[in-house]
Amino acid sequence: MSTLNELNELQDPLKFSSCGVAAARAIESRLADRLYNDPLAEVLAGPKALELGTQVASGKGSRESLSQQASFYGYSSADSNQPRKLGWVTLRTRYLDDALAKVFAQFQGQNCQAVLLGAGMDARPWRLPSMHSVSWYDLDQHEVLDLKGRILEAAGASKKHGQTAKYPLHAGSYTSAVVDLNSPSWTETLINAGFKQEVPTVWLAEGLLNYLTEEQNEALLHTLHKMSAPGSTFLGTLASEAWEQQRVRLNEGGHFVNLRKFRKWGGPNKLAEMEKFLRANHWEPIRLDSGGAATKQIGPQYEYGAKLDPGTGTPEEIEYLHLFVTATPTAIGTFD
After folding, report:
1. Per residue in 165-223, pLDDT tens?
2. Which backbone phi and psi does 311 adopt, to 5 degrees?
3. Interval 91-147: pLDDT, tens
4. Cα gap 163→160, rounded to integer Å
5. CA-to-CA distance for 262 and 48, rounded, in angstroms?
6. Cα separation of 278 and 267, whole Å?
7. Quick one: 164 exposed, middle or buried, by C-beta within 10 A (0-12, 13-18, 19+)?
8. Is the pTM here over 0.90, yes or no?
9. Which end of the chain has fewer CB atoms < 10 Å from its terminal CB, N or C?
């Protein structure tokens, strides 16, 4: 199946970053003490991103590259008596898996919707349990969703609930929609794809918000509020300005390139500042966790693996390098 090797088609660094996320999930899934299992991550990552991630996980590469990427991919401690450091992708994947499970459980089998903004190579509709009442929507650019669809088909993943397949669909339904989140027409595209404004929705923004300006984030939150029925939830992750100011990772031929030019906003370094930002944009924060707090929720045997360059950052800045957001709309959305 040649299609399974075509992820190298995503030459654009920003689009290719979704392959790096899938590679990190594939590497985590190989571990005996894995925090989740993502059987589709390896084929969705593609050989290029997977090779880079494997080099990091095995301890190969320059000291600089290992230091930069360990915070992204994560790694296991060679000493079983030492806490295992959780990379950014592993931490946010497990945290959001748990958060989604809690939200879905609150609906007690009633119909709801999940919309993944900037879906990339995510495979949650095929791996999370107890999603038979969830209508799942992947939103992203054409090149990404087209290739993802072909990869899933070649791998044997079903796009219809109840259909026998190598990778059966756990969600009640799955729909992908090509959108530009900076265009006002994206909501119309979503509605035309089957989205129902009267049904409670979980909006998931994983690794997205930093690629939008502050003004674009404000506009997005306003739009999500308007599209939300009572009982809806926003789940998001955000890297702080302290993290954004240092060089960020991405593989290209085994080397780092700077994605900073694509990342347009460094979020607040303090939870109180994020609370203020959310409330100003019609979302009431229910839970805000720093990277350290999120790690502690998973278990005492884990350690927050994010790092700043040596000699930079206060303890508070390091604690709040990554923020995890759970919020609900401050008032019922306006359906029009």
Report:
1. 999 999 999 999 999 999 999 999 999 999 999 999 999 999 899 889 999 999 999 99
2. 85, 5
3. 999 999 999 999 999 998 899 999 999 999 999 999 999 899 999 999 999 999 999
4. 6
5. 21
6. 11
7. exposed
8. no
9. C
- Tell me the one-letter amino acid at 22: A
Q: The tokens 């590679």 sit on which residue?
A: 23
Residue that has been written with the tokens 């707090």 in this structure: 293
Residue 129, token pair as written in the block: 């349990």
